[in-house]
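Project channel, design review

CF: Before we commit to the Oceanobacter antarcticus constructs, I'd like one complete example in the thread so the newer folks can see what an input/output pair looks like. Taking Class II aldolase/adducin family protein.
RD: sounds good, go ahead.
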Amino acid sequence: MQQTIARPDNCSEEEWALRIKLAHCYHLIDFFGWTETIFNHISARLPAQGDQYLVNPFGLNYTEITPANLLKVDVDGHKLDDSPYDANPAGFALHGAIHAAREDIHCVIHTHTNEVSAIAQKKIGFTHNDFYGAQLFGRVGYHAFEGITLFQEEKQRMLASLGDKHILVLRNHGIAVGEMDIERTLFLLWTVQRAAEIQVTAGALGGEDNLLEEAISQRCADLTQMLIKDSGFANKFFNAMVRKMESEKGPSW
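CF: and here is what came back for Class II aldolase/adducin family protein:
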């Protein structure tokens, strides 16, 4: 897509490309209907600075986010560049904890969709008996609800709940997913969302579920991981969704 906002002189080409991609990701979350008004975050690690991240200005709708107004913050969500917008350090508690502890995770997305929050409410959590749920087998951690995620002392408990996984169900709350780049993270979130939608819909139907053997679910999850290791797959998905969004809504900024 042709850029419609000029790159600032003090911004490297690498950082600007990341800003464009992250801004598109925010717009896609809105396009899919997964926003929580001005709340929640998508954060992306700056490649040249391991402890610096891009995140949304607090108070803006996701559709108002551009590559230029994204904030550069530290692991605690404190602004590192001048901006007329404020950061939301409290909201970055979850993101900062994951980024600081997991070098393999460069992007974190947190959502509260109805379907995901319904799964987070249930003791059983995610089942793995449908096409999308099977892809999550062995990849989900669960963290007990401790109230609004604000406090330093909860960080280590959240990280222990996540372990080496890439999906963290925040019980009675929502979900956080993280991967090595924005494209893979969005695709993982899409898979999680589809699994939640199908599980909620199936749960509303009468009749007995057709259960999958764990070995089948594990095989499905393993094959998906092999596929996602090819960055071209996630890129194709991401770029196709941007094209679809902009064909329906016009340029993002």
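RD: helpful, thanks. The longest helix spans residues 182-203.
CF: The chain is about 40% helix and 10% strand.
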